Amino acid sequence: MWPFNYNFSVWGTVVLYVLLTAGYIVWMLAMNAKEKRNGSKGGA
Amino acid sequence: MLVESWFTIVLIVYLGFTLIIGYFARRQIKNPGDYWIAGGKLGWLVGGASIGATQMSSGLFIGTIGLTYNVGWTFFWVVFCFPLAYWGLAWLVAPKFKRFGKFTLPDFIGARYYGNVPRTVASILIIPCFLVYIVAQLKAGGMILNLVYGIPEVTGAVIFFIIIIAYTAVGGLIAVAYTDFIQMIIMLAGAFVAVPLVLRNLGGINETFAIATQIRPGLTDWGGIPPIILVGLFFAFFIGSFGRPEILTRFYAMKDEKTIRKGILWVFVLIFVAHFMCFILAMSIRGLTPNLPRADVAMPALAAFFLPGVLGSLLLAAIIAAMMSTVDSVLLVASSAFAHDIYSQVINPKATEKTKLRIAAVATILVGVLALIMYMGGFGKMTLIQLIVALFSALIGSTFTSVVLLGCLWKRATKMGAVTGMIGGFVLTWIWHFANSPLGLNPVIPGVILSALLTVVVSLLTPPPPKEALAPFFKSERTGG
Questions:
Q1: Residue B252 in domain
Q2: Is residue B128 situated within a structural domain?
Q3: Is A32 close to B258, i.e. CB distance below 8 A?
């Protein structure tokens, strides 16, 4: 199945991008939860 | 109906629409805050799409597709620099910018580095960086009109220049953000329609890749592009993304930090979808027309000659939209460097709101004319569009990234450190570029290293910043911790 019938230079791009996005979502939810706990819009 | 006729209809409807948005945006503008940052009220959907549309210039639809047509799928690894950089921005930079709550990058530099000297230096250096970028976009616009109507590329570029200037000078960021949103929809719609059609023509995605690699082996492995060039381009775009004033301005323009984070997630999705489709298109074009004389014409040629009239026109409109959404944002930032950062802050701080808005419109036109002169003078004539965009990114990255990041993260960074860092990075990048990139290194690498070194060393040799200058950016300085 495409992209897995090609080498890592092709399938790696798709798989890693999905993982990167998932990582960002986890971070975003964690930051939102932290702000909610602190009752502010974040601490610069 | 011929593609020229369809394209004319699509183009007139689309351009008319952007001018109408410009007119209605003008009616909403009450002060410079509305003009420069849309009143700081953009939500995640429009704000994120505006970042995405600004990011995805004609560099994507023409440059990236052209380069991928030449070197293959491996170029996708460079795309990772964008989500990584945006994550870094959302984490480290956006909260400081949003809390500070001004209009431009020089506003940040002027406040964090306590003075008009760093602000003015930043404002002056922004303009030549952006002229390079605008030239790449005008070149793309001219090329499309040349391909479709046979008119000279320069005439095509002038036509687009006039239209973009008209709605940007009139409507400011409100017009730009909403036209960006529409342009993003057109870009995605164009690509969504084209991808299945060309894949069906070639028998599916696996067949497309097989045909492309038969024609040119190496398009699906690491052999398509030398690693040093790939890594150099990655760093040029990655480092450049941290210092791009037209993107940083969007953080001021969005509602709050939560909205920015959500907007960046939207940018992640948009970047993947748009790039993925463009890479598929590039591989398909290699299968359909194996021997194009110039890689940059790959996408316009597909739209004009291989797709049915209306679909081809939609795709051409998508490229035009990509080009326009970038030029308008960039024009706005470059003109703000003059009108807001130099005129309103340094030359005439007591100027009335009306005068500031008038100067902003004049500055937009002036910067546009300068870019047009540079383009007509032959700058970047023999270079691929993607490489002109990479030069712009290298210039921005070398000039501003270390100053922005150190300003946000290191309290000891001083005014003179920032000034020498910006000038050193900017000058070395140009020298490296004109010396044809010695050692095969992308100019961003020596540029950003010198900029960071100068900022750190000169900062350590000069007195530390006053507490008041740090207070807006560091919580510990506000609470005395």
A1: yes
A2: yes
A3: yes
Contact between chains at B73 and A13 (C-beta distance less than 8 A):
yes
Domain total for chain B? 1
CB contact under 8 A, B256 and A35: no
Whether residues B265 and A41 touch (CB distance < 8 A) is answered with no
Q: Which residue has the tokens 């002169």?
A: B373
Write the DSSP string, B46-112. HHHHHHHHHHS-HIIIIIIHHHHHHH-GGGHHHHTHHHHHHHHIIIIIHHHHHHH--SSHHHHHHHH
Instruction: List the single best residue of B44, B64, B71, B73 to mutate versus A (max A Cβ within 10 A).
Output: B73
pLDDT digits (tens, 9 = 90+) for B132-156: 988 988 888 888 888 888 889 889 8
B398 DSSP assignment:
I
* Residues in A touching B79 (Cβ below 8 Å): 13, 17
Contacts of B209 in chain A (CB under 8 A): 2, 6
The pLDDT value given to residue A40: 56
C-alpha count within 13 angstroms, C-beta hemisphere, residue B95: 19
User: Residue B60 in contact with residue B131, Cβ under 8 Å?
Assistant: no
**Helices A8-38, B257-288: inter-axial angle, 10-degree rounding:** 170
How do residues B347-371 score in pLDDT, each as one tens digit? 888 888 788 778 888 888 888 899 9
- For residue B86, give the chain A residue with the closest CA: A24
Residues of chain B contacting residue A39, judged by C-beta atoms under 8 Å apart: none
Interface of A with B in 5-24 (CB under 8 A): 5-7, 9-10, 13-14, 16-17, 20-21, 24
| pTM as predicted | 0.83
Does the N-terminal peptide bond of residue B300 adopt cis geometry, omega within 30 degrees of 0?
no
How far apart are alpha carbons B264 and A27 in whole angstroms? 12
**ipTM given for this complex:** 0.89
- Minimal Cα–Cα distance from B306 to chain A, Å? 25
pLDDT of residue A24: 97
Torsion of CA B378, B228, B224, B316, to 10 degrees: -40
Q: What is the CATH number of the domain that holds B222?
A: 1.20.1730.10
Among B99-113, B210-224, B312-326, the least confident range: B312-326
Using the structure block, give the residue that is written with the tokens 């490296």: B432
Domain extent, residue B61, equals: 3-383
Q: Is residue B399 part of a domain?
A: no
B216: closest CA of chain A, how far (Å):
15
For residue B400, being part of any structural domain is answered with no
A-B contacts at Cβ under 8 angstroms: 74
pLDDT, tens digit (0-9, with 9 covering 90-100), for B293-342: 888 888 888 888 888 878 788 778 877 877 777 787 788 887 888 888 88
Q: Residue B194, Cα to own-chain centre: how many angstroms? A: 24
A24 contacts B87? CB cut-off 8 A: yes
> Are the Cβ atoms of B83 and A41 closer than 8 angstroms?
no
